[in-house]
Amino acid sequence: MNVNKRERILLLATVAIAVLAGFQMLVLRPLMGDSKGARVRTALSVRESARLRAVTDQAAAYEKAFADIRERVTTSDSVQREIITMLLAIESLAEDSGVEILENSHLKDESLEYFDRHTVRFRGAGDTEQLTRFLHAVQNSELLFKIRTMKLRMKNNRLESELEIVRLGIRDEVEP
């Protein structure tokens, strides 16, 4: 086959372009794809690391809050001691708030799976500000009281309240 100079140049240029295209398709694109994938994986790893760091920080905060609450939640003593502690604390909160105590008595106890629930009935009278201070003090008490029910009524230009106040005590030993 006799090929002139111009055809030889065109043939060499075509072969060179084909070799360059093959090199690009077989070598450069996979390498570029790998580096792009590595950048994406790195970005995802950085994002996941930041998320795990935030979760770790939250876990530390939750552990601290749990430890604080655990210190305030006592292990159930005898039922009598728990009730006496509740009645005295509620009486003290009422006196500090200026609420007149009409009744402060034990209502009932319930034994649940891991804890005991003690309920006290409180009746008191005072003005709106005094009762508000008392309710706030009960809800934010160190003994973790919760108000289950509340009834309010006006009587002789005074506000009377009737509350069921609950406290939980954790049992060390669980009954079978």
Tally of helical segments? 3
Mean pLDDT: 84
Helix/strand/pairing category: alpha+beta
The major sheet is characterized as:
4 strands, antiparallel
Helix content: 55-70%
Q: Cα distance, first to last residue?
A: 101 Å
Shape: rod-shaped
Q: Count of DSSP E strands?
A: 4
Strand-residue fraction?
A: 25-35%
Strand arrangement in the largest pleated sheet: 1-2-4-3
Instruction: Catalogue the unreliable spans.
Output: none
**Rg over CA atoms:** 38 Å
Helix and strand pattern = HHEEHEE
> How would you classify the quaternary structure?
single chain
Tell me what you see in this structure:
The chain is an alpha+beta fold and 176 residues long. It has helices at 5-72, 79-97, 128-139, and strands at residues 100-111, 115-126, 146-155, 158-170. It has a four-stranded antiparallel β-sheet with strand order 1-2-4-3. It is rod-shaped. 11% of the residues are buried.
Task: Give a short overview.
By secondary structure, this protein is an alpha+beta fold. It has helices spanning 5-72, 79-97, 128-139, and strands at residues 100-111, 115-126, 146-155, 158-170. The protein has a 4-stranded antiparallel beta sheet.
Short descriptors:
four-stranded antiparallel β-sheet; 176 residues; alpha+beta
